[in-house]
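Objective 1b. Sequence-to-structure analysis of Phospholipid-transporting ATPase.
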Amino acid sequence: MADQIPLYPVRSAAAAAANRKRAVYYSAAGPGPGADRHSRYQLEDESAHLDEMPLMMSEEGFENEESDYHTLPRARIMQRKRGLEWFVCDGWKFLCTSCCDWLVNICQRKKELKARTVWLGCPEKCEEKHPRNSIKNQKYNVFTFIPGVLYEQFKFFLNLYFLVISCSQFVPALKIGYLYTYWAPLGFVLAVTMTREAIDEFRRFQRDKEVNSQLYSKLTVRGKVQVKSSDIQVGDLIIVEKNQRIPSDMVFLRTSEKAGSCFIRTDQLDGETDWKLKVAVSCTQRLPALGDLFSISAYVYAQKPQMDIHSFEGTFTREDSDPPVHESLSIENTLWASTIVASGTVIGVVIYTGKETRSVMNTSNPKNKVGLLDLELNRLTKALFLALVALSVVMVTLQGFVGPWYRNLFRFLLLFSYIIPISLRVNLDMGKAVYGWMMMKDENIPGTVVRTSTIPEELGRLVYLLTDKTGTLTQNEMVFKRLHLGTVSYGADTMDEIQSHVRDSYSQMQSQAGGNNTGSTPPRKAQSSAPKVRKSVSSRIHEAVKAIVLCHNVTPVYESRAGVTGETEFAEADQDFSDENRTYQASSPDECGNMAREGLRTLVVAKKALTEEQYQDFESRYTQAKLSMHDRSLKVAAVVESLEREMELLCLTGVEDQLQADVRPTLEMLRNAGIKIWMLTGDKLETATCIAKSSHLVSRTQDIHIFRQVTNRGEAHLELNAFRRKHDCALVISGDSLEVCLKYYEHEFVELACQCPAVVCCRCSPTQKAHIVTLLQQHTGRRTCAIGDGGNDVSMIQAADCGIGIEGKEGKQASLAADFSIRQFRHIGRLLMVHGRNSYKRSAALGQFVMHRGLIISTMQAVFSSVFYFASVPLYQGFLMVGYATIYTMFPVFSLVLDQDVKPEMAMLYPELYKDLTKGRSLSFKTFLIWVLISIYQGGILMYGALVLFESEFVHVVAISFTALILTELLMVALTVRTWHWLMVVAEFLSLGCYVSSLAFLNEYFGIGRVSFGAFLDVAFITTVAFLWKVSAITVVSCLPLYVLKYLRRKLSPPSYCKLAS
């Protein structure tokens, strides 16, 4: 019914009609809980004319039915580009991807998941074949490794271009130089990449093998047998000891604990470190001996495998009893894979294995991450390729298309192929390795590990940071801070008073009761009928402390449970059914708010005395509600709520989940750097809001909009309109409401959320976290970073452009899956502001300089060919070309990885410097065009200068121009450097020394005479003064104007870092 709320963006008269229709619907809702909610929405939105403010940006969507409504936002985005523009921009990629996906789906058709009946200890009775219970995190197998790695390398235009150019040298008619000049750099890049991938893959294989080889005890008719984790089947009865990992999803049948329950640790599944209580099926727990599980005929009916880790519905049936026993199964009867048994020994029947377990279904496959800088360089490479083709066509055209022109065209393509330098990938990959090494060696962030060395520059381009809460922002250490009794409040400094009050009251009780504990029950029952008298502070403290001691989730680390079993029936009722986490309106809401503003997690404690008859009535209704197969959770909640009335308020407690060191200044630094922070947590809404305030994720001046619980499209529409009217406020939303909003209003919701200074998503499943990351990437096109510390954060970390894991109390699963691993959240500040910023700026400078090095020599080749009647003859051959890209210029150019514009301390002090990087101005088409113009100018000056000044000694033009070229490159490195490092100076002089010393050995290469005139280098000629001043003159003319321009730009329009550096 609620889904029929009119959402048409009509105007004037039509709007009034829609309002009338809505009013009729709301009045027809009748009495009940739903009616209140609708009237609330109606009153709130009546004045705002909801239907005059459509959420949709266009009106096309409102004429569609709800069934195909969720396809509209994406359809609208797709309609923005059509025709040739769409095909050129993204169409071809989209079509290729669609075809590949279709082929994969045909080859790997997914099996439909179904509900199942599992007989205890009888795997052979399974009607269907279920997946193996093995964990597989490897990307490749033996057959797909080499093709897979080669595909990942050659899907980039840069590498594919090098491969085609190198292969062309096997054709005699196209051969330009020596094979090693082309194949050596390409082979080096491939060898390094394949070695790195092989090592990573082998490590993943070893980790998987270790987990799959873990031994478990399997219960059979003949007794216990040892079985590997990977050999466990659906229907097996598995025994799991204390501190052992649960190998597959199971229903909990028996435990060694007398109470019939046990505790498990779920930190690797949902990220929460508190232990969860699990209850064994009472029918099997009551059996006298373990072997009796095979003497009964029983089965479990389980729902189909699904992702939700917080719910489960099933039934346990024993057929051989009269009448048959039917027992309802819920989440408290399950043991999910990847959790750890914390107390006792448990026996369970396996219901889901392998890919169908909750933990695997919530884990996304790791993807090969590619940095934005690499994609930008790939685009620039395509632009250079177009320039290369155009230049070659111009040359052939000026030749007059004489002879076999197509062969000449290809030879020109090979001659100018240095426009796209093959050393670009080598330099960048080596640079990435250096940045990773610097991060790991930084003493200010000890324990940092770089696991993915291909994306360090991503740390300098982030716009969205998605963080977990528990263990990431907080220490996961709860400290009791406040006890409020209505009239008096005790803080951390007055806890000794509470101790003395409790000690006094218990000593009085012992003297009165004579040490008999059971005597405490009758007075409690009489209490309810006796007239109320004002209690002393001491007795109120005693009542409050006793309630907290009896009803809590704190798990004792010892095995003995005598303290609990020795209590009275009333205490057991309290422990089972009191819902302490409910905030009672009868309590002091002002004091709750005050504590929450201090960043404390508040809890209201109340009690109710029950007679025996009241308790029996409650227990029967509670059991009946639990057996219901439809709306079980609602019915159970209704029964519990009937008990929680007319309760006596005891106290209000405040507990602090201590933040990690320097979380507040770190978050403030990230905000100033222009990074928007989203907190995604599996915790409750109140707790998440509390931490958001205490960590200053939400500043004190900002409002918080708590998104109400919505269940359908109508409610989502109304709530989104209410949210739209808020400005500059943080958003807090639960996972369920988020799911509804994304189903119907994906584009609108993301657009509104992105305008918020901070967003908090609570009760998020691991898959939802990853989905939010993907949505941000798709809708904003900005770079995202995810940071977490638990197994539940792995999907989010792998989905983000850059994943950071924290080694915390929740294990190492997140840090092992992440691209970067740190010890504390505060380390992220230096990692981004210093290392991320430097990595991006250095790689941008290095990439463009390497391109400049290729462009300048291609310009000289073009000028040379033009002078020689457009002949496709190489200017420099053999080792000259290899030496130019390696020993003559490599060290100075590569030393740019040590360059920095400001000191690390300054980058941390002024995080606003980071904001400039997100605009991508260090590497853009504008900066690239400037380098192209510089290259054309310098290449032209060097070649024409050599031809003009050395007219009389024309045969020496190669030696002269090459010497001037080397000097120019060394001077250009000096021009680019912003902060000198002693290694840079060493590199400059080392390269110059290498060139001078090699002149004596390379005389056969110098002189175009080797091609046509037969002339060689004259050593005596090089040592003349005329040679030296002419080379110096050419070099000065090519470099001096650029130095002057740089100086003027620094003076007239200095960049922001210059102002700080000065």
